[in-house]
Design goal:
The structure holds 2 protein chains of 2 kinds. Chain A is an alpha/beta fold. Helix content of chain A is 36%, strand content 10%. Chain A has an 8-stranded mixed β-sheet with strand order 6-5-4-3-2-1-7-8. Chain A is globular and about 50 Å long. Chain B starts with 20 loop residues before the first helix and ends with a helix. Classes of the chains: A alpha/beta, B mainly alpha.
């Protein structure tokens, strides 16, 4: 297990550089360019169809250092959104009727502006999602977090790659599975994941390795059966998400000799229907520093909105952004393989 | 070093259709139908295929169905149990033939 105790940035890895990642992905021999594939599917240039998800990445601080993390998040990262930038997000949101606010990180709950964003988004009548790593709910500093989320009826989208401890811990760190179950039981005790409560608890599974995720529906049934039978845990939906070949997962691919095979797998599995449904077409992604991106992955490899569109949340203009042209690259194969992949799971 | 088995040959499986496309297409149509969801799920069928791959000791099949099992949502513990099923049947097959040994030995012994 070569990486995972510290971030790429902390270790001074060459892959900590977004430019280096992009250069590597775009110069891989034998890889057809993603834009050519899009052209073949009649989808180039890719354009937004609207904005129904306002995704805010509040920063890279996290209490875990998962091996597949596309954010290169961890306890050694300090980049977090300021209250001022969060205020700009709320002001922008107030000028639109975008129905969903999706808050992510890092562990977004550790960022001081997190609760402000939840409260203000709810005040505006928006549906709020928290992308939660579960273990954060057990930190002494977050003792009231679960109750806060329940009180504001925040949808929780929680990471749990496997119903087996060995797989979960291999990806997310030793002991994470046990703590995740403890957190899930806490959420269940508040009504999360229980029928009729209105408190939504969805799980996310990323493959623990260099392969595609399983079909979402059957795997959801499998997770429900195993988690209920073996651990007494219930949840609403399971989202299967493909690992993107960037950041720490890219490091894993290179260190393990799986890079070429994995990219080949993604290319072979290119699905035009998934390409048509990619989440960037209906999402706007805001970075911790207020910069605007088409998605969280573009954000992490520092590919901002292009073609003269507003670059920062202070200049947000929903009319212009609704139909913007989307910035793509070879990492996008991760969202178009097989059944497709998005923050809401498979797309076809 | 030259060997009979090359991992990259798996990607050339379809070359077997070149000299007889009709039979290849019939085989592939059958193959696809066998592994589709039916009374058994695709996930269960991939686990069976993994076990059989070990029983017939086909390195191509082991490679392909290890990947397939993982992509159908099985994990290493479940896949290991499937291999043990193959192992038990192979071992049991040897052992149950011991009955023949006993029959012969009993017949010709005092």
């Amino acid at each position: 297990m070569p990486s995972a105790m510290k971030s790429l940035k902390f270790r001074g890895s060459r892959l900590a550089s977004a430019a280096e990642q992009v250069r590597f992905l775009e110069s891989t021999n034998g890889l057809p360019r993603f834009d050519e594939k899009l052209s073949g599917a009649g989808l180039h240039p890719l354009a937004a169809t609207g904005i129904t998800v306002f995704q805010i990445n509040v920063g890279k601080l996290c209490n875990q250092t998962c091996r597949h993390c596309h954010v290169d998040a961890g306890p050694d990262r300090s980049e977090v959104m300021t209250r001022e930038t969060a205020g700009m997000c709320v002001a922008a949101l107030a000028r639109t009727d975008i129905p969903t606010v999706d808050i992510t990180g890092g562990a977004p709950e550790l960022t001081p502006c997190f609760r402000y964003l939840v409260e203000e988004s709810k005040r505006l009548g928006r549906h709020v999602m928290d992308r939660c790593n579960l273990t954060v709910l057990l930190l002494p500093s977050q003792a009231d977090l679960a109750q806060f989320l329940a009180r504001h009826r925040v949808e929780i989208v929680a990471s749990l790659p496997s119903y087996a401890a060995s797989q979960t811990d291999a990806q997310r760190g030793a002991g994470v599975f046990g703590k995740s179950l403890e957190a899930l039981r806490l959420l269940n005790s508040l009504g999360y994941g229980r029928e009729g409560s209105g408190l939504v608890l969805n799980l996310v599974t990323n493959p623990v390795g260099a392969f595609l995720p399983p079909p979402q529906g059957p795997q959801e049934n499998h997770f429900k059966e195993r988690l209920a039978r073996e651990h007494g845990v219930v949840f609403n939906r399971l989202y299967t998400i493909t690992n993107m070949p960037i950041s720490r997962f890219l490091e894993f691919l290179l260190d393990s000799g799986n890079y070429e095979g994995y990219m080949q797998r993604l290319v072979e599995a290119f699905n035009p229907a998934a390409a048509e449904s990619v989440m960037c077409r209906y999402t706007l992604s805001v970075g911790w520093d207020g910069r605007l991106y088409d998605c969280d992955f573009n954000q992490m490899i520092e590919l901002p909105l292009d073609n003269g569109y507003p670059a920062h949340i202070r200049d947000f203009d929903s009319r212009v952004l609704h139909t913007r042209r989307i910035v793509t690259g070879n990492h996008c194969y991760g969202c178009t393989a097989g059944a497709g992949s998005s923050c809401g799971g498979s797309t076809t | 070093m030259e060997t009979y088995y090359h991992p990259k040959d798996l990607a050339h499986f379809s070359d077997m259709g070149k000299a007889n496309p009709a039979l290849w297409e019939k085989f592939m149509a059958y193959y696809g139908a066998v592994f589709a969801n039916g009374a058994l799920t695709e996930r269960e069928k991939a686990l069976i295929a993994l076990a059989v791959a070990h029983a017939v000791q086909c390195p191509y099949c082991i490679d392909a169905y290890t990947q397939s099992c993982l992509e159908k949502g099985s994990n290493i513990e479940e896949m290991t149990e499937a291999v043990h099923v193959a192992c038990a049947i192979r071992g049991g097959s040897s052992l149950v033939h011991g009955v023949q040994m006993r029959n012969v030995a009993t017949k010709i012994s005092m």
